[in-house]
Design a protein that fits this description.
Number of helices: 8
Distance between the termini: 31 Å
Oligomer: single chain
Structural class: alpha+beta
Largest sheet: 7 strands, mixed
Shape: globular
Bound molecules: zinc ion
Order of helices and strands: HEEEHEHEHHEEHHH
Helix content: 25-40%
């Protein structure tokens, strides 16, 4: 299989995993930058992620326009992906979702979403909150054009995740496997933090040193990362689509 075909297959797997892990439902999407043309990205047509197959993947430019004539409907919020890929050349994959456990942290000002569990370290030390009303007033809260998406990308800055007030989150990473991992653990980290708040007392975030230590040991193709990807894909019913990474890309265990 070509690199492009493998990536499309991985994108299908990513869609199914995010659905199975309840990060997305009928709404929400994941994209990956085109391997041969950094000015383009791949994303499903307007379809619930659980139902996405290889034939549903379309190619868009960094304005969110389809590269080929496309009669099928596209995601209304595809501009989120276009703007983040445009603003962040190192980003290879993006997720936008409405995962319920993340929402309180975009609404309440009292507690910031911080990494508090080891698997939540990849959300990074800062999670900015983007409020569409700040620049665009009363909207339906959806990101439906490039101006809104560019504003969101600016708020995201160099961070891995931005919360979107009353709506959801946008996450960016260097690979599909990383953005899926990040998006799966983000709501779990949020849930742990909410429960810790209920127990009361001082809340201890991961320290900057702990976050750095986790990042230092991380590789998207390590045995440990692959273990999660394989597990999630199999659980989501698409283990047969898996393409194993080359052995040469494996790194020593670190988690
Ligand atoms: Zn949305």
């Amino acid at each position: 299989m070509s690199t492009l075909d493998t990536l499309i297959q991985d994108l299908v797997i990513a869609n199914r995993i995010l659905a199975r892990e309840e990060v997305v439902d009928a709404y929400g999407h994941v994209s990956v930058r085109h391997p041969d043309n950094p000015e383009r990205f791949l994303i499903a047509r307007s379809l619930a992620p659980e139902l996405v197959g290889p034939d549903d993947i379309v190619e868009l430019d960094l304005e969110g326009r389809p590269v080929r004539e496309e009669g099928r409907g596209l995601y209304l919020e595809r501009f989120i992906h276009a703007a983040i890929f445009a603003a962040r050349p190192e980003v290879m994959a993006v997720v936008h979702a409405h995962a319920e456990d993340t929402l309180p942290f975009g609404i309440a000002q009292g507690t910031k979403l911080r990494p508090v569990i080891h698997s939540g370290s990849f959300i990074g030390p800062e999670v900015p909150v983007w409020d569409i009303a700040d620049r665009f007033g009363d909207t339906n809260l959806l990101v439906t054009d490039m101006a809104q998406a560019a504003d969101l990308a600016q708020c995201l800055g160099r961070n891995n995740v931005a919360l979107m007030r009353g709506h959801g989150f946008a996450a960016a990473a260097r690979s599909l496997i990383e953005v899926v991992r990040l998006s799966v653990y983000l709501p779990r980290n949020a849930r742990a933090l909410l429960r810790a708040k209920q127990l009361g007392g001082e809340i201890r975030d991961l320290s900057p040193g702990e976050i750095a230590a986790r990042n230092r040991g991380y590789s998207p193709y390590s045995v440990e990362t692959w273990r999660a990807w394989e597990y999630w894909a199999t659980k989501a019913g698409c283990g047969h689509l898996l393409t194993r990474p080359d052995d040469g890309r494996s790194t020593p265990p670190q988690g």
